[in-house]
């Protein structure tokens, strides 16, 4: 069953890699750009280590980011779908790594995993839709709007830092006992 | 169970942070859309609670016979007050001599307050004491952003060897003063008929044999043999263990030892065990049902230990080898240290019977003419060793189950009941 999970993750990776071509078409430049990404993804799928999966997930979105940076295009309304695929890939790949080899998977666990994937897909689609809708709002070029934007950016950049620090176990300070002279 | 942040949390941050930076630099909202669910997943995980799990390992029986199987149950219970465990990996490790009849690794999901039983039937492949476990449980919680593990120690399973079928006659070289079931040559109160002799003053009238008295015209009485109990010491040779799995020399020796001990203990005799080999252990002779359990426990711990130390019976305490005990040695007769010890015992006046436990398949298949020659030389040397042991009063007999010791026991009893010339 672990192999089945890996196959599902690989399928999602292929879909996500092919997604930028729906925007640009099969141009030579983007095909050449996606070759190293494919190599990273393949190495991630073959190595199946924690680091390799993280690198492969980054490689999956790299062509899409390049396409968005290079092409002056209108807002991609299908971005929430890409986000849903990315988060689904991360969840399934993490599960596939953490299951020890030659381990039987319980049917209830698989149902639970499917429900979790459905949950994160709905979450990604809903969040994406909300963000796209907010970005499409016509805001006046005022001091308040700029302050709100800067605040949101600071919040967005502070969130990963908070996640990293809050996830670490708290260090308890040990009392030092000194021998009395 | 202590939980720590899992690699998934680092992965989510490592993916989301560059996307957010890219969104700011490039001014593209799509990158925020990509990063938002990753951040949301991480935040939801951190706001959740760690699961609390309780793990229990139980066995359907702590003892079983060879060929039987026991059921190991691992119960994982999630506390209702803790968070929800997204993934629980259960890994039950077994001793190599225990064969699982089902998967021992399982990944399950649990609800808070729920529990899950994982049952695995375990079939031991050999007698002995083996650990079922330890069981390791790895849990992922907080939407896979934290993970922790816990373990429970293994439960020892005692696999009792098959009882070899054994019966033996009354012949015994030595007898103790207590009443038992072995008929001695000495006349006295007993059940075993010894003969008819003329009446002597003091003989009880109920012993008068009227038929003989009528025929011979003089009072005659029946004579009986006194029945006494005996002491048996089982000497198990653990220098070597040869033969195919399940029928090795040690398997045969231990099963035979258990059968012999069971036979003599059921007749009220005292039985002791000495394990003579790489590691030397002993069990002082005793009688009764408790001693039977002690013998079983002692034999369960028998194993071959590699040792180059020259060992003789001098290192055994005197009470392990009482002077008037019958020593039944169970040995494949492969190690000269063992054969020397048996000869030493016979020389010290013990009644020694050696049971050859080497299986027929102990020798490897002949692969060449040179091998056939070497095999002949080996068999001749072995024959000479057996002959030498028999000559010094330690007869060797092959183990064949019920009644296999009857003939040699009569021989040893006769050997030790003949008058001896004492050197003064």
Written account of the structure:
Chain A is mostly helical and 181 residues long. Helices cover 76% and strands 1% of the residues of chain A. In chain A, α4 (79-98) packs antiparallel against α5. The longest helix of chain A is centred in the C-terminal third of the chain and has 29 residues, at 107-135. Chain A starts with a helix and ends in a 14-residue tail after the last helix. In chain B, the strands form four sheets. In chain B, strands 1, 3, 5, 7, 9, 10 and 11 form a seven-stranded mixed beta sheet that branches. The model of chain B has no long low-confidence stretch (mean pLDDT 85). In chain B, α1 (7-26) packs antiparallel against α2 and α4 packs antiparallel against α5. Chain B is elongated, with a radius of gyration of 34 Å. Chain B has helices at 7-26, 29-47, 210-216, 249-266, 289-300, 336-347, 369-391, 406-417, and strands spanning 2-5, 53-59, 63-65, 70-78, 87-94, 98-100, 105-108, 115-124, 128-141, 146-152, 155-160, 179-187, 193-198, 220-228, 231-238, 270-277, 281-286, 326-331, 351-356, 396-398. At the A-B interface, α3, α4, β1, α5 and α6 of A face β1, α1, α2, β5 and β7 of B. β1 of chain A pairs parallel with β7 (105-108) of chain B.
